[in-house]
Amino acid sequence: MALVGQGLNDCEIARRTGIPRSTVRDWRRPAYQRKAHRAVCPRCRRATKPIRFTAEDYAELLGLYLGDGCISAGARTARLRIALDAKYTSIIEDTTALLERSFPENLVGLVEVHGGTMYFVSLYSSHLKCLFPQEGQGKKHERRITLEHWQRCLVEQAPWGQERRANARPRRAEVLNEPLNLD
């Protein structure tokens, strides 16, 4: 950096030091962007994009997953796919909004299938198995599904069948990246 202080350009510094010019350039003007501090998953302790949900949102998402959803493992991530009937456009819109609200930095996909009679709402995330530990081999209706303690606490705060008031103010979203007791 002393040579930079003398006013030498990248080529001259490279000639004098024997360091490639592109390396000198990168030292002087780094092109890379440092990754912003990533949140940490409270279940597996790995880095994650933000995951936010209220108890009501989690209960609804759990119900959609257990009812009409599936999680498929990919090479480096997992995919949540929820199958919805095309006749119920408000449910499709609500489900899309729920996923966008809960996973604000993940893209939510919407695909029309079966000749337009059905839609798949999908999302990729490496932490779907952390959020839905019920994921496993075989059909959900043929295996035992039990909620973990932390899931039961969230569902009890906002039972699936609870009547929602149209003008109710949503509670502050619980941020999964803040310490939660998941035992």
Q: Main β-sheet: number of strands, strand sense, barrel status?
A: 4 strands, antiparallel
**CATH-level-2 architecture of the largest domain:** Roll
What's the structural domain tally? 2
Number of strands: 8
Provide the gyration radius in Å.
Answer: 24 Å
Would you tell me the overall average pLDDT? Answer: 81
H/E order of the elements?
HHHEEEHEEHEEHHE
Helical percentage: 25-40%
Q: Unreliable runs, pLDDT <50, ≥5 residues?
A: 164-183
State the helix count: 7
In spatial order, strands of the major sheet run: 4-5-7-6
Q: Can you identify the CATH superfamily of the largest domain?
A: Homing endonucleases
- Helix and strand composition category: alpha+beta
Beta-strand portion reads: 15-25%
Which key phrases capture this entry?
183 residues, alpha+beta, Endonuclease I-creI, two-stranded antiparallel sheet
Structure summarized in a few sentences:
This protein has 183 residues and is of the alpha+beta class.
Strands, helices and their partners?
Elements (H helix, E strand, L loop, with lengths): L1 H4 L4 H8 L3 H8 L10 E2 L6 E2 L3 E2 L1 H14 E5 L4 E8 L3 H14 L5 E6 L4 E8 L2 H4 L17 H9 L16 E2 L8
Antiparallel strand pairs: 1-2, 3-8, 4-5, 5-7, 6-7
Description:
The structure is a single chain. The radius of gyration is 24 Å and the shape is elongated. The chain folds into 2 domains: 1-34, no CATH class; 45-175, Roll (Endonuclease I-creI). The protein has 183 residues and is of the alpha+beta class. It has a 4-stranded antiparallel sheet with strand order 4-5-7-6. A two-stranded antiparallel sheet has the order 1-2. 33% of the residues lie in helices and 19% in strands.
